[in-house]
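Everyone, carefully examine this protein record:
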Amino acid sequence: MASDILSIADKKMKAVSEGLKTELATIRTGRASPALIEHLKVDYAGAPTPLNQIAGISAPEAKLLVIQPWDPGSLRDIEQAIMKSDLGLNPVNDGRLIRLSIPPLSEERRQELIKVVHRRLEERRVGVRNIRRDAVEEVKKAEKNKEMSQNDSRRVQEQLQKLTDNYILVAEKIAQEKEKELTSV
């Protein structure tokens, strides 16, 4: 019983903190990265489709992304999706592929993005704490139903707190790396 609660909480907390890394990859830095645009939704054939499912995305240079759609007819839709996004990028369409030049970030924009990183980190902290709260409720319910002793309950709650602290630290390290990436010119 106790090990089930701990393993489920561990898996959920890991997913929350690892999800932060994926989410922060979409925040633009001064370098070109396909992760920046690959999940951008494009209205393709009447359905919102992630860009990486309808085109190849590469970064041949540090400040350039190249998008080569598998269907040349989708160039216009991809171009519009990029312009509608809040990335602040201007696509250049040459009829076969789209080039995105990644301009350097202004200091003001860097500060805005750092605030976004902190906001997303706090959302992940709250998510991890909510998982802990739910697991502790399960432990208390098991103790009340005499499925677990009081000592076991206390021990499991301490382990849940250690898990929580660990995954919050992992998320903070991920956010610090992204912040470092944003502040380096």
